[in-house]
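User: Can you recover a sequence for this backbone? Please restate the input before giving your answer.

Assistant: Of course. Working from this structure:
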């Protein structure tokens, strides 16, 4: 590994000991079943880079929204494909996104929202233990982003014991 190279994919808060921010982060960690704050900071950093790109596109077009959308068509298509932006949203709507828009597209959250697990933490466990597939392929990364069109293809692995409807862990999830 080369020295001096930044390998982190996230930025830590500038002021680590702010009570309100810590409480907000803890709330999000519990709501989305995140393992640690690093996962939240990664989502926040991803959101920052998305907003930065939108601001760059708007700035280069000198505030002309249509021109900015034409220049960033590929960028906007990607955000729409992942369900971060709605089809009717414009490039200016990118600036009003928050970290929950990113966290909602994680595989862990999609599994929980579909009712395949009773808690976000259980969804994480099912994924890491190989019980969940996306489009027929086993997925083992809870942080994986799921495209909006793939959300319907998230299901139990047919070879998994949890695929049996009478499995005790599954019975809790469907109550």
């Amino acid at each position: 590994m080369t020295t001096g190279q930044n390998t982190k994919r996230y930025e830590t808060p500038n002021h680590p000991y702010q009570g309100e921010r810590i409480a907000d982060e803890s709330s999000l960690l519990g709501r989305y079943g995140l393992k640690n704050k690093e996962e939240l900071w990664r989502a926040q950093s991803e959101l920052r880079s998305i907003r930065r790109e939108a601001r760059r596109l708007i700035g280069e077009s000198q505030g002309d929204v249509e021109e900015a959308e034409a220049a960033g068509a590929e960028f906007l298509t990607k955000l729409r494909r992942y369900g971060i932006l709605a089809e009717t949203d414009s490039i200016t709507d990118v600036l009003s996104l928050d970290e929950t828009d990113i966290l909602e597209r994680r595989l862990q959250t999609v599994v929980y929202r579909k009712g395949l697990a009773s808690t976000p933490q259980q969804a994480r466990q099912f994924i890491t233990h190989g019980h969940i597939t996306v489009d027929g392929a086993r997925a083992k990364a809870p942080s994986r982003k799921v495209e909006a069109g793939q959300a319907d293809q998230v299901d139990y692995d047919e070879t998994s014991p949890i695929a049996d409807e009478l499995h005790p862990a599954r019975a809790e999830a469907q109550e």
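That completes the design. Helices lie at 19-32, 37-60, 65-71, 73-81, 99-103, 107-113, 120-128, 168-173.
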